[in-house]
Amino acid sequence: MKSICVFCGSSAGTHPIHAETARSMGQEIARRGIRLVYGGGHVGLMGIVADAALNSGGSVTGVITRSLMECEVGHSSVTELHVVDTMHDRKALMARESDGFVAMPGGLGTLEELFEVWTWGQLGIHQKPCAILNVDGFYDGLLAFLRHSVNEGFLRRQHFDMVLAGSEPAKLLDNMAAYRPPALTKWLDLEDV
After folding, report:
1. Starting at the edge strand that comes first in sequence, how are the strands of the sheet with 101-103 ordered?
2. Cα separations (Å) of 183 from 71, 160, 178?
3. pTM of the model
4. In angstroms, what CA-CA distances link 163 with 81, 114, 148, 181?
5. Mean pLDDT over residues 54-79, rounded?
């Protein structure tokens, strides 16, 4: 992997562990010579992961919308900053620029970004690893809900298993590097309709 997209909050959260882990993730990405691709902000976990990568000698590509730039949340010190018109443009460019995706703690935008790239993987639009950095159990409830969706027959087990989850940046990045996409299978059978 030459580049990894990190989805995360524009807030740092209420517990210091989130900022500490974002810092570790940025440092580890830079240490491995991987380019960080992210939402282009200087605030919250986004700013922390970008600053950590930059301060460790890494390359950082930010992608931000014009409206967010006008709100003065754009990071002016990243290696490369793309300013786009819409959130759809932002997500599409981030996906094109990345060889894999990691969701760290965040809010609705982070969840939406994670589910979109995960769905694209399910549909065979890409074969890039998708991962969840489950800091201090932040995503335990979501993972439990998704397991429930499997048990209820709304999510296939092989699609649930497409997303890697872990709590340590280095180990999660190792697992992403070792990821081999599953063989594409027919995901919609006529009996499902």
Report:
1. 80-84, 60-65, 35-38, 3-7, 101-103, 130-133, 163-166
2. 44, 14, 15
3. 0.92
4. 28, 10, 16, 10
5. 94
